[in-house]
């Protein structure tokens, strides 16, 4: 794993002696975590996330902390939000801690490969997310990764705070929903070049999700256009909420200020009251 470069200034790291990321046993706990404006990033790759962490700190005035999953404890409730960006194996202790955080009332933001083919080894995680991932050789809806393409993130909810607050879209595109019958419509979109798109993240929870973004791209192998309503969504998770945004493979995705603003909006959106039926 790459060595972590501290996100916070030295003075903030000094204060971590009192409110630091980990207790003496190596876990994060409520007593150690600051109140209010603190967010925690749980990841196994850091370089891509550095522009996002800086954006959240400077534009959102958040105290951004980060930790490896092996050091993650169960006491996360003091954090305003927790991010999950794990590409490789996801250990069961960290999985349980993040599920407990979300269902206990937390704001869990999952990015890119937090919901990808490796997560088939984490059935409880996919169950909470309401996602099924079929094998790559499935005859009907095989899981695929389209690489070296432009991920066009299409705004399917133009009046929603998360998709609109301080967000400027590059252009409009003609987009046809993959999940409901209807005519193609001209919708706002952001282009994220030289990255990847996941195909066939299947929903297993009916219409429990509020879908915010569609994803469209050109498959370099076939030249065909792919459109699926999987670019971003949120859903209730027990007493909390789970947000998912698919872009994030490349560092350049997080250097797009509008995409970072969308992520920040997930942290500042008030939404309706939390609860099992909250949207």
Structural class: alpha/beta
Q: Which fold name fills CATH's third level, the topology?
A: Rossmann fold
Q: State the total count of DSSP E strands.
A: 12
Query: How would you characterize the largest beta sheet?
Result: 10 strands, mixed
Gyration radius from CA atoms, angstroms = 18 Å
Q: Quick one: CATH class?
A: Alpha Beta
What are the secondary-structure elements, in order, as H or E? Answer: HEHEEHEHEEHEEEEEEHH
**CATH architecture tag:** 3-Layer(aba) Sandwich
Based on CA inertia axes, which overall geometry fits?
Answer: globular
Supply the CATH superfamily name: Class I glutamine amidotransferase (GATase) domain
Note poorly predicted spans. 1-34, 273-279
Terminal Cα span: 37 Å
Topology:
Elements: H1 10-19, E1 38-43, H2 50-60, E2 63-67, E3 81-85, H3 92-103, E4 107-111, H4 123-129, E5 131-132, E6 144-155, H5 161-164, E7 171-175, E8 185-199, E9 202-203, E10 210-218, E11 225-237, E12 240-245, H6 251-254, H7 257-268
Parallel strand pairs: 1-2, 1-3, 3-4, 4-12
Antiparallel strand pairs: 5-9, 6-8, 6-10, 7-8, 10-11, 11-12
Helix pairs in contact: 2-7
Written account of the structure:
By secondary structure, the protein is of the alpha/beta class. It contains seven helices and twelve strands. The longest helix is centred in the middle third of the chain and has 12 residues. The N terminus and C terminus are likely disordered.
Features:
279 residues, alpha/beta, two-stranded antiparallel sheet, disordered N terminus, disordered C terminus
């Amino acid at each position: 794993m790459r060595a972590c470069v501290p996100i916070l200034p030295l003075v903030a790291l000094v204060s971590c002696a009192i409110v630091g990321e980990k207790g003496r046993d190596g876990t994060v706990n409520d007593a150690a975590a600051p109140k209010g404006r603190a967010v925690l990033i749980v990841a196994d790759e850091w370089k891509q996330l550095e522009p996002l962490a800086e954006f959240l700190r400077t534009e959102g005035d958040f105290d951004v902390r980060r930790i490896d999953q092996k050091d993650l404890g169960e006491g996360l409730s003091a954090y305003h939000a927790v991010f999950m960006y794990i590409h490789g194996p996801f250990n069961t202790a960290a999985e349980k801690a993040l599920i407990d955080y979300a269902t206990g009332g937390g704001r869990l933001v999952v990015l890119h490969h937090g919901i990808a083919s490796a997560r088939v080894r984490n059935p409880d995680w996919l169950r909470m997310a309401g996602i099924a991932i079929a094998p790559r050789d499935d005859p009907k809806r095989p899981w695929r990764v389209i690489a070296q393409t432009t991920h066009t993130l299409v705004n399917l909810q133009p009046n929603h705070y998360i998709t609109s607050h301080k967000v400027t879209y590059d252009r409009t595109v003609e987009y046809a929903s993959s999940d409901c019958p209807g005519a193609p419509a001209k919708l706002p979109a952001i282009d994220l070049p030289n990255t990847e798109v996941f195909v066939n993240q299947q929903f297993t929870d009916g219409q429990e999700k509020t879908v915010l973004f569609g994803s469209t791209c050109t498959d370099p192998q076939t030249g065909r256009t792919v459109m699926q309503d999987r670019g971003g969504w949120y859903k209730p998770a027990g007493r909390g909420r789970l947000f998912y945004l698919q872009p994030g493979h490349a560092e350049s995705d997080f250097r797009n200020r509008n995409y970072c603003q969308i992520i920040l909006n997930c942290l500042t959106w008030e939404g309706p009251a939390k609860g099992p039926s909250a949207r």
